[in-house]
Amino acid sequence: MTTKSTTVRFIKTISPLLSSVSPGLGANLLERLFLRTTRRPVPEREQEWMKGADVKVFVSKRGDSFPVYAWGTGPTILLVHGWSGRGSQLAVYVKPLLERGYRVVTFDAPGHGKAEGTQSALPELAEALELVARQERDIHGVIAHSLGTAAVTFALSRGLSIQRAVYIAPPDNPGTYLYRAGRFLGFHDKVIERARLRIEQRFQIAFEALHSARLARSLELPLLIFHDPEDRDVSYKEGQQLAASWPNAHLQTVEGLGHHRIVRAPEVMGQALRFIHEGVLASPTSSEDISTQTQPHEQHPHAPEKESISSASARNQRSEQGFQGTGLDAGHTVA
Q1: Is residue 85 part of a domain?
Q2: Residue 63's pLDDT is what?
Q3: Which residues span the domain enclosing 88?
Q4: pLDDT digits (tens, 9 = 90+) for 2-35
Q5: Sheet strands (E) in 185-323
Q6: What is the count of structural domains for the chain?
Q7: Is 267 contained in some domain?
Q8: What share of the chain is helix, strand, coil (3-state, %, to 5)?
Q9: CA distances (Å), 180 to each of 103, 240, 306, in order?
């Protein structure tokens, strides 16, 4: 039995008791679990991609320092990682972007990669993105993965100006993940609600204000989305929802790449680079599926519907194998 699995089972054992006897303490524990990030070993391929970067250190509003990596000159392309990720995960795009005459910038958000801190949240990821963006005079586009896409959408709604964006495996409504994580761990909904209020107070923003699909309705820049229907971490339906809500978005369906390999898959990279550089999409007559026909489906802004027994069982099996200690890693990692 792994340490992570043991920890999850222990939390599942005590969470119902905490929910009944001390909901405040339970909410405090859930908040800390949900905001805790996890750092994973950096593969050699990423270390190679990061060579030659000019490194600067920025400081977040909370006081945590975080590294910013830059290559080249020209119009800037920002690369934005997801939850418990790091800038190097998207650095595979550095060389081909440099060859096309761009300056490339990425960073490790607070609590991620080589940055300071052990906790973070979507508002802090967005603030770090905005801080980096303010230092760049000519931002042409963004390539973002997973929760990083939600940070970009939030920043765009607050005035970030770019020409076009590529989103890879984007979540639609990150606020629902607190409920999914809390229920998976066995906390009662009243405790989850308390944890939500605590987090909103901590970051001075409501979860609903971070709902990407709703923010997308007022955004007009061209967006290309890549998503795998078999993504086990962020549901393909979330990519569909975002594409349906964004006026000028195209959803590119790719299969067999999951949530992480999709970032560096040659077929995804080729189309992403062409879109960023030329504004050209894959031909609708090709084998790739480009669709924005899915209609939005409204749901409660925070609490998702409970899963079926079969899907919950499968999700729980994955979670006990890969739980990283945060809400966004409890069976549906947003990274």
Answers
A1: yes
A2: 87
A3: 36-174+211-304
A4: 556 788 899 999 999 999 999 999 999 999 999 9
A5: 223-227, 249-253, 289-291
A6: 1
A7: yes
A8: 45, 15, 40
A9: 39, 20, 8
